[in-house]
Amino acid sequence: MKLQRLAIIAFSAFVTMAVHGQLFHPLGLGIEKGERKGDFFQPQIHVEGDILYACTNQGLYSKDLSNGESEWHLVGFEGIPLQDYARRGDDILALRYSYSSNYNEAFLLLSHDGGKTYEDVTPDMIKTPHSGWKMVMKNLIQHPTDPNLLLVLSMPMGVFQSADFGQSWNQLSDFIPDYICYHPLNPEIICGSGESPGFWAYMNNSYDGGQTWEYVKPDYPGDNRVNRMAFHPADLNRWIAGGFGTVYTSIDNGHTWNTQIFSGNRDALWRYTLYDNENPDIIYMAGDYYFRLMCSTDGGSTWNEPYLEPIKKTPREYVYDLKQYGDRLLVFYESDVYEISKAELLAQGATSVQSIAQPTTGDETLYDLQGRKIGSGKSFPLKGARGAGIYIEDGKKMMK
Fold first, then answer.
1. Each residue of 304-326: pLDDT tens digit?
2. Which domain covers residue 396, as residue numbers?
3. 300, 392, 395, 303: which is closest to 354 by C-alpha?
4. How many CB atoms lie within 10 A of CB 11?
5. Is residue 121 part of a domain?
6. Of 157, 176, 195, which closes a domain?
7. CB–CB of 178/217 below 8 Å?
8. Are 156 and 166 in contact (CB under 8 A)?
C-alpha cells in the first residue's frame, strides 16, 4: 500500500510538471542576451502598443507581439548591457549596467535617433567620488504622466531626480533601496523598498515628492526583503509587494503593512507583482530560483501557485521583469522572455490554493535561514534539520 501511494504521488508530480511545463512559452530572445552578468543586473521589458522592448546585455531589442512569426530586432545601443530606458518622443535615455570602480564609466546614454548614436550624459554628482568603490545604477524610473521627470537609483550615492529628461539632477535622498518608483495615482508619492544591512524587510516612502521620508519595517519573523511595489489601479491606498515566501499588503497608502506567510512555500523569492489590467482583483507574482508564477483572484487574500521545473540544468533562474499584453503575461527570465496565457494560468491555479499564515513573534519558534520551522521553545532543532548552528528566533539570527 505504501509503495502504491508513493507511485501515485510520483505520477501526480510528473503530471503536474508536464502540465506546468507547457505554461511558459519562450519568445526566442535567448539566454545569450539575458544571462545574468552580476548581482545587480536586472534588465527590464516595456510594452509600447504591440511592440515589446527588452533591455539585454547586448543592447535594446524589440519584437512585434501582434505577429506570432515576428523575430527580435536590434533597436540600438548595440553591445551595451542595459538595465532600463526612458522614452520622450524620438529621444531615448538608456541606463547602462555596470558594477565597477571606474569613476569615468558612462551610465546614462542619451540618443536622439532610437539608440543608433548616443552621448554620455552621466553627471558626476551621481557617481561615487571615492576611488575603488563599486558603482552601479540600479533603477531608472519615468514619471507616469510627465516624460521629462525621471528617478535614478545610484549605488552608493542614493536617489536622484531629473526634471529635464536627464540633463540635470538633484539628490532626493542618500539612502539606497533595492527598488524605487513613483506611485502612478499620485506621483508625489515615491516608494523605496528592499533589504536592510541588518537583513530585515523595509520600505522608505516619501509623500511630498522626496522632501521627507517615512521608514517602515513590516513585521516578519526573520530575514526578508520587500521587492518591487505594485499599486491598485483605482485605489490609492492599496499597495502590494513580494518577498521571501511572503506577500506584503497595505490598505492605508503604505503607512502600515500586513505580512502574509506561505506556510507551504517559504523559499520562493517573489520579485515582481502585477495587477491585472482588466480586473484588479487578479494579481500576479513572478519569482526566482525556479520558473515560478502565482496569482490571486480575490485581491491578494489567497494565492494559487503553479510550479515549474527549471529549463536549464541549474535550478536557479533569476526573474527580471513581469508585464501584461492583452490576455497574455510576459515574464523576463534569465534564459528568455516567456509568454503565458492568462486563461491557462487561472485555470491551473484554480486547483491549487496556497495557505497563508500571519507572522508570530515572541513565541520563541525556531526557523532555519530559509525560513523553515525547525523547533520551538528553548529546544534544539529537530533531528536532521538543515542549517544546524545558525537559526532565526523571534526575528533574530542566533547560534544554538
1. 865 555 555 566 788 999 999 99
2. 364-400
3. 303
4. 10
5. yes
6. 176
7. no
8. no
Give the CATH number, domain containing residue 156: 2.130.10.10
Is there a domain that residue 336 lies in?
A: no
Give residues with Cβ within 8 angstroms of 349, minimum separation 6.
294, 295, 297, 304, 305, 306
Q: Taking the C-alpha atoms of 192, 195, 198 and 199 in order, what is their torsion angle to the nearest 10 degrees? A: 160
Nearest one of 263, 253, 315, 317 to 288, comparing CA atoms: 317
pTM for this predicted structure? 0.81
35 SS3 class: coil
* 114 within 8 A of 75, measured Cβ to Cβ: yes
Over 50: is that where the pLDDT of 8 sits?
no
Among 160, 176, 192, the domain-final residue is 176
Q: Which amino acid is at 375?
A: G
Write the single-letter amino acid at 180.
Answer: I
Q: Which residues, 6 or more positions from 281, have their beta carbon under 8 angstroms from its beta carbon?
A: 296, 297, 298, 299
Residue 247 lies in a domain: no
What's the pLDDT tens digit per position in 107-131?
999 999 999 999 999 998 888 776 6
- Indicate the SS3 state at residue 5: helix
> Is 250 within a domain?
no
- Pull the grid cell for residue 27: 519568445
* Rounded distance between C-alpha atoms, residue 36 and residue 177, angstroms: 20
pLDDT in tens, 334-386: 889 999 999 988 887 665 555 454 443 333 444 333 333 444 433 333 333 33
Residue burial 298-323, b: 16+ Cβ < 10 Å; e: rest: ebbeebbbbbbeebeeeeebbbbbbb
